[in-house]
Amino acid sequence: MADEGVSRRDLLKKAGLGGAVFLGGSVLGRSIGSARAGTEPSYDGEDHSLVGDDVLDAIYGHGHGPPIGIEASALDRHTVPPRADELPPGAVREVEFGVEEKLIEIANEVFFEAWTYNGTVPGPIIRATEGDLIRLRLENRTGHPHSLHFHGAHRPEMDGWEPVPAGGETVYEIEAGPAGVHPYHCHTAPLAEHVARGLYGMMIVDPPGGRSPAHEVALVLSGFSNGVIGENGVVAWNGIAGFYDQYPIKVPVGEPVRAYVVNMLEYEPIGSFHLHAEIFDVYPAGIGDLPAFHDDTIALAQGQRAMIEFTLPRYGRYMFHPHQHWLADRGAMGWFAAV
Ligand SMILES: [Cu+2]
Questions:
Q1: φ and ψ at 293, to 5 degrees?
Q2: 76 within domain boundaries
Q3: Is residue 110 part of a domain?
Q4: Residue 79 lies in a domain
Q5: Are 171 and 237 within one domain?
Q6: How is the beta sheet containing 293-295 ordered, strand by strand?
Q7: Do 314 and 248 share a structural domain?
Q8: What does the pLDDT read at residue 52?
Q9: Pair 291, 235 in one domain
Q10: pLDDT confidence of residue 78
């Protein structure tokens, strides 16, 4: 493994990515999140962090590490698109997805061999109105079988668990609904690997007439793992670890905020979302006209999601992160800045 890591790094140097940490697939260029075998529990002043210093540096710029070198515009692609225009009767909402293999940057100079929908992890946000007919054409431009499975309600023959062969394509037609927030993801075996390598995203379904005005935010929690439970070496909101620690999400002070929060974190028993210094309304799966409860922390199993609404009444920075702090440590720390 060590030799492999060295040769990977040499390859990266040749590719102009010297010093990069490289993760992905069946090979990890650098051991991430690996416990030290045979270590006795004792206080010896040494670093027993399960996350390598290089990964922490890459995520947060800790210690002497470099500051994050990813540009502020890198996650513009996860800006919530405006509510879709209502379709005229009989019209169809056409969506084109290509499954592509791509080397993506998941933290500052940390690279991952991803499987992607349209080249990004998470995939594009789909937005529709309840009842819209969505026709999604999936082109599999990879050498592996893949598929796309929607959560929510639809005809079972459009459920997306049947693999689309390498180089093949298929068309899914679903009626968007119910109004809420629903993940989509690949459903080809081995499922955990296909999801963990990047094939997931969110669909926002508005009720007819839309929701009340709010500043809207999309947050998909996911990890980049070596495939072992509890060993997601890098954890991120919207695919770039440490991003919202470096670049707080700006929201208008005193105005309503609506966040669509989706947990697609494989290889962890659970994910969660915790907001500091304020309480939010919770709509599980974004379904319903009234909040189910109020909290500052919600737990989400894999595939679970919620729409949350809150108002930040005072200027300032409000921290958010999963309340499993090891996930925050590995890149899922962030801030809302009420400005
Ligand atoms: Cu797949």
A1: -165, 175
A2: no
A3: no
A4: no
A5: no
A6: 232-237, 215-225, 256-263, 305-311, 280-284, 293-295
A7: yes
A8: 63
A9: yes
A10: 86
Residue ranges of the chain whose pLDDT lies below 70: 1-55, 61-68, 226
What's the pLDDT at 231?
Answer: 77
Q: Exposure of 60 by Cβ count < 10 A (0-12 exposed, 13-18 middle, 19+ buried)?
A: buried
- How many angstroms is it from 145 CA to the middle of ligand 1? 6
Domain final residue pick, 206, 229, 258: 206
112 CA → ligand 1 middle, Å: 16
pLDDT score, position 26: 31
- Ligand 1 center from residue 163 Cα (angstroms): 8
**pLDDT score, position 76:** 87
Q: How far is the C-alpha of 187 from the C-alpha of 228, rounded, in Å?
A: 19
Range of the domain at 239: 215-338
CA of 56 to the centre of ligand 1 (A): 29
3-state secondary structure (DSSP) of residue 138: strand
**Which pLDDT score is estimated for 2?**
37
Q: Which of 183, 206, 229 is the last residue of a domain?
A: 206
Residue 159 C-alpha to ligand 1 middle, in angstroms?
A: 14
Is residue 109 one of the residues assigned to a domain? Answer: no
The total of structural domains in the chain comes to 3
What CATH number is associated with residue 146? 2.60.40.420
- Ion ligand 1 residues within 5 Å by Cβ: 146, 186, 188, 194, 199
> From the CA of 188, how far away is ligand 1's center (Å)?
5
CA 134 to centroid of ligand 1, rounded, Å: 21
Q: Tell me: do 67 and 127 sit in the same domain.
A: no
For residues 148 and 183, state if they share a domain.
Answer: yes
| C-beta neighbour count of 253 within 10 angstroms | 14
Q: How far is the CA of 13 from the centre of ligand 1 (A)?
A: 30
Residues 263, 316 within the same domain:
yes
Helix, strand, coil percentages (3-state) for the chain, rounded to 5, are: 15, 35, 50
CA 194 – ligand 1 centroid, Å: 4
